[in-house]
Sequence to fold (688 residues):
Amino acid sequence: MFFETPVYFISSSAVGGHEEMSSPYSSHFDFFHDKDTFGEDTFEKAESELSRIAFNFLLNKIKMSQEDIELLISGDLQNQCVASSYGLYTFGIPYLPLYGACSTCTEGLLVASLYLQAVEKTKPHYVGVVTTSHNSAAERQFRTPLEYGAERTPTSQWTATAGGAFLLTQQKNHILPLHDSPFAVRIVWGRAGKVIDGAIADASNMGAAMAPAACDSIRHFFCHTPYQIDDIDAIVTGDLGEVGSRLLCELLLEEGIDISSIHHDCGLCLYDKTSQDVHAGASGCGCSASLLSAMVLPKLKSGEWKRVLFLSTGALMSPSSVLQGISIFGIAPMVLLESEKMCF
Amino acid sequence: MFFETPVYFISSSAVGGHEEMSSPYSSHFDFFHDKDTFGEDTFEKAESELSRIAFNFLLNKIKMSQEDIELLISGDLQNQCVASSYGLYTFGIPYLPLYGACSTCTEGLLVASLYLQAVEKTKPHYVGVVTTSHNSAAERQFRTPLEYGAERTPTSQWTATAGGAFLLTQQKNHILPLHDSPFAVRIVWGRAGKVIDGAIADASNMGAAMAPAACDSIRHFFCHTPYQIDDIDAIVTGDLGEVGSRLLCELLLEEGIDISSIHHDCGLCLYDKTSQDVHAGASGCGCSASLLSAMVLPKLKSGEWKRVLFLSTGALMSPSSVLQGISIFGIAPMVLLESEKMCF
Fold:
């Protein structure tokens, strides 16, 4: 759907752990914890602390108080999304928890945009979106405890210990004094994805499981909006990794859509392939969330990109469903981001 | 927030398992499976089948096709919400997965209402909301495998094997030919709840853990809307059970708000206390969802109730967080339901 009232990013933050310090985009991150523990005694609590730090950095950057924020939308990969609810409850903001697997960041932006369409428009309203993942918390939950030292397969991806926080509003005028760049970034269109069964049951090959969902969403975008490939500067997927990215380009080419020249995958951008061995790339809710803040928004705010189709990709499965041999379904909600010249 | 465009229920359905067949509201249920397996070989798959059946009954009742529905919002208690995504993917409807623990039903109605505010208003738009829970799938995930035969404590509640499905639209005129009763039911107001720490770490005492969140939400409602107690026919909470319901009334009385004469808790209404031993009452996503369809909507559609504050209550915890001794946080999103006389 096209949003009658465009939704503007006021600010964002990106937080990472040890592996993320070597990211090619590390200079755009706001904080790293070099031991991944974030000062906590369990990895699960560390992820809660990561989400709290990400949101605190966001608030501090723009000197806003948590009382001004009406709604907080959040999710993560832990069972029952406890990382987010435990991490963010101290802010005391009305809360909408989501679970879209690794697609939660885009799902959150979409629901935030819906909320900002529904509010009365005479005053500015502020909504926060936070998404995180933690490598050690995710690995022991979804696969095997780290202490087992299980060998990783070539198609497996490295769940990022990372998170991103975003603050959105519907009043363009209000963002002017806060903004630090010549271009503002707005969300003008969005769509929830369909659940697609790619017939992959291997929990170490999530890229292949999610590629058909990303393909379905992108095909829908070009069939049901007036945009052509040339109108878009970049199509940024969440965490398809090497296998899923190649598959996505192949699947779309079969439909006559060639995105290879404008496709970027956060799973392939987060780490440096030449020096970091993460097998098929990065994954996790925090992968696309941190790179939205550290890669996509900076390129839009500088004017390098004008229009970006951003779609995080999620694998809908649970440890039990994998043990029961059910195939892993994919989903890929989308938002269309545009840069807009600010007049001072 | 007050919804500028009221959101109307077109139809609903309620599905239950073996224990739910003896519910005082069983005559308003659409389907029961007397073995809780719904024809599947695992309890997890049974819950997926339950959600599919609930949504199918909804569509059949109003002779609508799944192609007419723009968005499906769903959630359940299983890890990573797989019951919903596996159960509903066959419908091929764009999908927004949520996780609000047992509060997911109200959270879904809230997000659906936001969506219907944001759409262009010249034509009718349709959104589905489905929520389920399954006793056996939940027990072995959150507490102990059923085969252990663990003794249940007096404060523990019985997770309902049940689900509810709802279809909403923003165009009042369009519901007329479909409607089967003198009153239509609309959602006019809603609010996401705050995450509240009630300092309870006992996973068998969820009612006490959630009561402070329900108290915070109800207090907010009476402080920030023009409504007084006398304007409301019923306040219906999700699954506080005996312990939580008593606690909620006590907490609100301390604030000078006496809801005891209009308070109904789905956890106390779903089963027959005289013949069904479920300890402190029912619980689960499916408890409030099925009774919204089988108890609340029928009373509003018949005109017995005119205005109802409906708030499902959720306990934000995971099996790991309980083992790590972290307290269980509560959340209670709200919607205000009104009956509206239809003119034929």
